[in-house]
Amino acid sequence: MNSLKELPSKTSQVENSDSIKLSTSELSLLSLNEAGRVLGNSINRTYALIYAVFINSSPILLSIMTSVRNLLELASQSLFGRYSDIHGRKAFLLVGLFISAVISFFFPIITDPVIFLFAMIIYSLAFSLFSPAWMAYLGDISVSGSRGSFIGKISTVGVLSTFIVLIIMGWGIALTRIDYIIQYSIIFRVSSVAFLISGVTAIFFTERIKKPPKINYRKNNDTISKNKSIKVNIKDQIKQVILPLKENPSFRRFVIICAFMDFSMSLGWPIFGFIRERYASPAENSLMWAVFMGFQVVSLTLGGKAIDRYGKRVGLWGRRLMFLIPVVLFFATNWYELAIANAVGGIGYGMYFVAMNAYIIDSAPDQSKGKYLGAFSLVMGLATFLGSISMGVLTELLMQILGKWDTIYLMLIIVIIFRFIGGLNFTFVKEQSIMS
């Protein structure tokens, strides 16, 4: 079985400004990997909470599920990303993707909410294995002058593929009129196959990084010396997270504003699933999230051009739109109306995603971009953890007093207020110049 580097020389070569010289076969494998990875992850993240509601998970369990998932993914990505620098990308891609394929296959078999929580934790760890390794691999095979364009084109393949599959799956399942549990089985098995395909393509990848030399501890790997090194490394990592916030006041302001907004966003996660499960079948949810993906593609394309022309603050308007999602959910009575919320989410997320990453990268010196991205991700992970947990606990307590649906709609009003205030805070973000 030949690796990418060993493909026949007759294969046509793609030589453009987007990447290092890559063959058509290499680009095809990269696109197929991206399509499978994005489709699988989109299905799991979309349906996990809805399925959890279907198997009668409580609000507090839903909040734990989302909080632990986000914290694990954001906190451990930095660790596994550094390990992939040392041990190579391929192993982390293969292990993470194949674990994701297996756990996705078993999702619809699980009917106990607590067991499903542990299954989601396993998936979150698998995601943390393959996600940073994949982005780093794209960095390995691209050149700095056009890396953003190259990654953007590859990412668009994933989003478009997911959009098409969700449309087909949604209409196809709807026409069969089968039971909900069978619908969930089909949906999660599609996710499993997508991850499997992505994992198979990763087998053909060739490492393109030079592994650093291993650290040799004195005194025959003396345990005390090794422990001291680990302690120093942990302290150094903590300093690396705090340093960007201390040395750059504009970046610190941006992180604080984004943290409050992400806290406000996460307040809705433990309760949105109840609304979507109430008014939409699994097949209809597929169509709803296809709407999200479709509008996200448009937003990513047009938003990027608008940001290049008018500045990053234009893209940050995407976050201000997020309060409209709980507004729509509050008044929705069918899946068509819920799809409007997804359209708003797709537009807002695409604009914000481009502006956020551009702002962080431009805030950082050339040799510290990864450090700034890591600091931002960790703070956002803590913010969403606190928001989701607090809302889950509060919802659980109030349900005992007000009842289920009165509590959920009251919580929606709280989410609307927090998201509206969080969006207004972006007024205080200043346009950032590129650091050198």
Describe this protein's structure.
By secondary structure, the protein is an all-alpha fold. It has 17 helices and 2 strands. It has 2 domains: 22-207, MFS general substrate transporter like domains (Growth Hormone, Chain: A, Up-down Bundle), CATH 1.20.1250.20; 244-429, Growth Hormone, Chain: A (Up-down Bundle), CATH 1.20.1250.20. It has helices at residues 24-54, 59-87, 89-106, 113-140, 147-176, 180-202, 218-221, 223-247, 249-266, 269-279, 282-310, 312-315, 317-320, 324-331, 335-363, 369-402, 404-424; strands at residues 13-14, 22-23. Strands 1-2 form a two-stranded antiparallel sheet. Strand 1 (13-14) and strand 2 form a beta hairpin. Helix 9 (249-266) runs parallel beside helix 16 (369-402). The longest helix is centred in the last third of the chain and has 34 residues, at 369-402. The radius of gyration is 22 Å and the shape is globular. The model is unreliable at 1-19 and 228-232 (pLDDT under 50).
SS strand fraction: under 5%
| Annotation, overall tally of beta strands | 2
If strands are numbered along the chain, what order do they take across the biggest sheet?
Answer: 1-2
Mean pLDDT across every amino acid position = 80
User: What is the CATH class name of the largest domain?
Assistant: Mainly Alpha
**Low-confidence runs (pLDDT<50, min 5 residues)?**
1-19, 228-232
Helix content: over 70%
Shape: globular
Structural classification: mainly alpha
Looking at the structure, the CATH topology of the largest domain is Growth Hormone, Chain: A
CATH H-level superfamily title of the largest domain: MFS general substrate transporter like domains
Gyration radius, in Å? 22 Å
State the helix count.
Answer: 17
